[in-house]
Design brief:
Helices cover 11% and strands 29% of the residues. By secondary structure, it is mainly β. The chain folds into two domains: 133 residues, Pnp Oxidase, Chain A (Roll); 66 residues, no CATH class.
């Protein structure tokens, strides 16, 4: 819950301390880009946020049922921001956190002033980088999540579910190959990600 001092500050017609936007882009675990819409750096929760020209464009509501997207525009005049995101596929699917804080009360609880998003896309030119933030539409997700096939394995080869760690570099995802690689021809391949018990004809839906 926001403290009393934050509620009072938020409801003032004017304030001596500016409200700032903090931008956190998680590039990888332990590697986070932190920016603040300010002329100087600030320290918030033990992390330093570097000053960077930035603005937020509010989402536009329409009648087509599209999922609203928030646009964060960051300066790119020295190509610094563009260089940051080019090596990570434009930061698509990366986590972004936006936090609104008051510069005069950085030790207060701002949990209700935080919003988390996914980067849906980014566009760069010689002036700015525009990040489109939001949540992916559920219509883009495969349903059902897994297909149940009798003799085709769903697991990623050498992944956690697969469990194979030998020298073979590829797999055709068949039960026969799984048994050969795991040495379980006579015992059955317990890690096989298919469903040999399904009938070979027809379709069955399960949940």
């Amino acid at each position: 819950m926001p403290s009393t001092v934050l509620k009072q500050e938020k409801n003032k017609l004017s304030s001596t301390s500016p409200w700032l936007i903090l931008f956190e882009l998680t590039i990888s675990p332990g590697d986070v880009l932190r920016l603040v819409s300010n002329t100087e750096s600030i320290t918030y929760q033990g992390n330093v946020f570097s000053p960077f020209p930035m603005q937020i464009r509010a989402p536009v509501q329409d009648l087509a049922g599209t999922i609203p997207q928030l646009t964060v525009i960051v300066a790119n005049t020295d190509r610094q921001m563009q260089a940051q995101i080019e090596g990570i596929n434009g930061a698509v699917d990366k986590e972004v956190k936006l936090i609104i804080v008051n510069a005069g009360y950085l030790t207060e609880d701002y949990s209700e002033f935080e919003s988390q998003f996914k980067v849906l896309g980014a566009v760069a030119d010689n002036k700015v980088v525009s990040f489109n933030l939001g949540m992916k539409s559920p219509t883009y997700r495969r349903f059902p999540l897994f297909r149940m096939m009798g003799y085709h394995c769903n697991w990623v080869f050498k992944g956690i579910e697969c469990g194979y760690s030998g020298q073979t570099e590829s797999c055709d995802h068949t039960l026969k190959t799984c048994r050969i690689l795991t040495g379980t021809v006579d015992k059955g391949a317990v890690r096989f990600g298919g469903f040999p018990g399904l009938q070979t004809m027809g379709v069955r839906f399960v949940h």
